[in-house]
Amino acid sequence: MLLKNIESKIKLAFIVSIGSFVTSAIIVGVGLYFAFQLVKDSREYIYALDAGIPVLLRRTDVDFNRQAEYKGHIKLFHTLFFTLVPDDDYIERNIEQSIYLIDKSGITEFNNLTEKGYYNAIISSSSVLSIQTDSIDLDMETLKFRFYGTQRIERETSVTNRQLIKEGSLKDLNPRSDNNPFGALILNWRTVLNKDINHVKKRTF
User: Fold this and answer.
1) What angle do CA 188, 189, 192 make, to 5 degrees?
2) How far apart are the first and last CA of the chain?
3) 152: how many CB neighbours lie within 10 A of its CB?
4) Of 161, 144, 156, which is closest to residue 202 (Cα–Cα)?
5) From first to last of its 205 residues, what are the pLDDT tens digits of the chain?
6) What is the pLDDT of residue 52?
7) N or C: which end of the chain has fewer CB within 10 A?
8) Residue 63 belongs to what H/E stretch?
9) Which domains, and CATH codes, for the chain?
10) pLDDT of residue 38
11) Who contacts 149 (Cβ-Cβ below 8 Å, separation ≥6)?
12) CB 131 within 8 A of CB 83
């Protein structure tokens, strides 16, 4: 009887020991996991100085919002290239900024328009051109895009709305710069459609 009691106590002690070891291992494992997550999360934040004041910022992966950046790049280029006023300096500045965002196909288009007297016609007719981005289709696998926009051409006597559809592709460009904030380059840019939607004459009194 005494022997059975001793064996039972030994078994109980063994079970308690094993249980304590397993419980300790689980607690240590959970503690290490949360400690690792805490360190990982802390590395996602950095301090930056804004006018001498430290500001806590969250770091993100380069590809975290790349699709939106690509579309922003496409929109910025078309806005610069097609927003024009009858001013030589303004036209030159806009075209110069847009050329940083595209390959030689942009320069080719600019030269073609110059030879056709496009920019001289804007100045001589006092036209103001602006463009509205309707939508941008972008394939993230091939990086090919199609831009849909409506260009407004306002002259002294009339307003013309023109539908523009442009195609091209993108490639990443590193490092980023002030002239190319999205770090991308438009390639093989071409016109799919360029036609007038409507033409409205202004009232004269």
Assistant:
1) 120
2) 122
3) 16
4) 156
5) 544 566 666 666 667 677 677 787 788 777 777 777 666 555 555 544 445 565 444 555 455 689 999 999 999 999 999 999 999 999 999 999 999 999 999 999 999 999 999 999 999 999 999 999 999 999 999 999 999 999 999 998 889 999 999 999 999 988 888 999 999 999 999 999 999 999 888 765 5
6) 54
7) C
8) none
9) 2-58 (no CATH), 66-201 (3.10.450.230)
10) 67
11) 78, 82, 131, 132, 133, 134, 163, 164, 165, 166
12) yes
Which of 195, 117, 105, 113 minimizes the C-alpha distance to 149? 195
Cα–Cα nearest to 130, from 112, 148, 151: 151
3-state helix, strand, coil in the chain (%, to 5): 45, 35, 20
The CA distance from 192 to 65, in Å, is 28
Task: Label residues 61-88 b or e (16+ Cβ within 10 Å = b).
Answer: eeeeebeebbbebbbbbbbbbbbbebee
The three-state secondary structure class of 18 is helix
Three-state secondary structure call for residue 181:
coil
DSSP conformational letter for 164: E
62-68: long-range contacts (C-beta < 8 A, 24 or more apart)?
66/140, 67/138, 67/140
Q: Is the pTM of this model over 0.85?
A: no
